[in-house]
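Narrative of accomplishments. A recurring question from our advisory board has been how the design workflow behaves on a single, concrete structure rather than in aggregate. To address it, we present the structure tokens for one chain from the evaluation set, followed by the sequence designed for it. No filtering or post-editing was applied between the two.
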């Protein structure tokens, strides 16, 4: 199936697009398209469209992508409604929510009208035992790869050799 869609040909942060006719199964980045039918630069709002070629391809059954479809409608090459490109939010408008809530509550009232409502019984709350106080113990020293004790968490590092630096060489004073 053939489609008319955008092919990005630009630098980073400088988008510009060719409008091309390409097989839907092929990547739009492959560069193997049947025909270039226009150009669009969203930064400068520059549009160059070959209306006669676009109408020709549309007559052959080629489908435009949603973005290209909206672009063609805006340039009055085709007529119709714009297609929403972005996902609609799941939140409904406040007026629709209040109407649906009113319908739901009236339906519940109608269903419960024939039944008697039972008062809710209070469930007994289980008693909790006081927790025993735990004594805070200092953290145990941690052994490093070298087998020496490291500082506990949050403490000052020990002045011993940590294994990362070379230990200071012990030099004995020369006897003369």
């Amino acid at each position: 199936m053939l489609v008319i869609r955008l092919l990005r040909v630009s630098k980073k942060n400088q988008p510009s697009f060719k409008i091309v006719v390409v097989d839907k199964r092929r990547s739009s980045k492959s560069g193997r398209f049947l025909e270039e039918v226009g150009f669009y630069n969203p930064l400068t709002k520059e549009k160059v469209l070959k209306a006669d070629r676009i109408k020709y391809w549309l007559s052959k059954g080629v489908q435009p992508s949603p973005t290209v479809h909206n672009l063609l409608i805006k340039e009055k090459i085709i007529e119709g409604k714009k297609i929403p490109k972005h996902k609609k939010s799941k939140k409904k408008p406040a007026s629709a929510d209040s109407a649906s809530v009113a319908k739901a509550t009236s339906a519940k009232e109608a269903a419960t009208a024939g039944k008697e409502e039972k008062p809710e019984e209070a469930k007994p709350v289980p008693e909790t035992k006081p927790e025993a106080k735990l004594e805070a113990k200092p953290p145990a020293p941690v052994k490093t790869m070298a087998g020496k004790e490291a500082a506990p968490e949050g403490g000052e590092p020990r002045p011993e050799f940590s294994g990362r630096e070379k230990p200071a060489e012990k030099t004995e004073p020369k006897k003369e």
